[in-house]
Amino acid sequence: MSSVQELLVSLGVNPASFQNGSLKVHSPIDGAPIANVVEQSSAEVTAAVERAHAAFTQWRQVPAPRRGELIRLLGEELRANKEALGRLVSIEAGKIIAEGQGEVQEMIDICDFAVGLSRQLYGLTIASERPGHRMMETWHPLGVVGVITAFNFPVAVWSWNTALALVCGDAVIWKPSEKTPLTALATHALLERALKKFGDAPEHLSQLVIGQRETGEILVNNPRVALVSATGSTRMGREVGPKVAARFGRCILELGGNNAIIVSETADLDMAVRGIVFGAVGTAGQRCTSTRRLIVHSSIAHELAERLKKAYRTLPIGNPLEAGTLVGPLIDKAAFDTMQTALQKAVEQKGIVTGGQRVLHDRFPDAYYVEPALVEMPAQTEVVRHETFAPILYIMSYERFEDALALQNEVPQGLSSAIFTTNLLEAEYFMSAAGSDCGIANVNIGTSGAEIGGAFGGEKETGGGRESGSDAWKGYMRRATNTINYSRELPLAQGVKFGDD
């Protein structure tokens, strides 16, 4: 615990915020308590929203390239502290060291993207049907953005939202998962360093509020919060979306993913095995883009299943801080119990399970390490259609490509998808309007590992939101259509005649 506290202090976190609070934080590595974090009361959260709105009214008037300078400074702080922050991610979320470092690199990358974006918040010039007139679109800051994040990517998702929101002229309030508040404290301390170097940003431009469900509900229900960007379960999204819509606010929802890989009979199986295993067991199956379903042509189904079983037997499972580990722990006992329930249901639905049992419990009695599970299923049953946030990979076979595509699309979620094939027609069809119905559709690469440059998000019960690259910035701004009359006349649209015309 002392080493964690030293790490937090080195990142600029005030010890008073994590020593004597009411929120007990445990590391999934060994289940040991590592901090007692101070939570904000309902009144403090509401006051934070008011302060954020006041900051927004000032920040929106700062030129966008100047706002980009703040994000450049944040990127420099992240570069300088990548190793320390990445290690803290591993300790608190259970990710292996490479994944913890990789998450911080994603933060650095989005900062670079947002700095360039600060000079590219372009609108359109539009042809007017009236002589002597010009039409155009302009984009303006939206307001206060509430960011609610999940434990599995405790800092990267915040950065995707915040880097864009601050460049767009918004203020931000961050409610992290109650399972991973320490990484939030550390990240926000780095942002505060950047703000100090920036010099003249309004006070309370970015704030951190830590608490339970009620804390998030305040952000969801407060009309001062113009946009709520929430990452979590579909169940959570069903509650957040209607509440924000009822007050005519905006939502970016990043919810469930039940991601499939189709493996064609023409696929390069060496590539496919590599992509499948990484997608299925990385972060112990606790990514929203984890591979959960495998749809394999019947002619190669047995061979591929055997190759996967062989690969799974060699997976190094253990302490994520130790070199060579590829699979760390589940976040907690509840995640383990959910996994076991799903495997039991799979057996009841005629599935054949390989793996899935708890391991290392003698070394880590208060932590939950598991062997990733392979489940050969006769059909896409109810349990397969449900997302279980754990390393379970369901394997099914198909005869016709059309059947494989139907299986992939016939689940409620629509985040990420992939196909391994060397058949050009299959690849193109998969990416067409009649192909994958997901927000992410890949060819000869797995379902995880999205890059900063592309907008991230999905369809159906995934929520429809988009974060990070491309034109996702438009979600954090409001659009105005402007018409300028530079003539001495006032012609009306559509040739309407009025009065003495």
UniProtKB/TrEMBL annotation:
MF annotations from Gene Ontology: aldehyde dehydrogenase (NAD+) activity
Q: Where is the Aldehyde dehydrogenase domain?
A: 21-479
First-tier enzyme category under EC: oxidoreductase
Look up keyword NAD and say if it applies: yes
Q: Which UniProt keywords apply?
A: NAD, Oxidoreductase
CDD domains xrefs? ALDH_F7_AASADH
Active-site residues are: 254
The entry assigns this protein to a family as follows: Belongs to the aldehyde dehydrogenase family.
The protein, known as: aldehyde dehydrogenase (NAD(+))
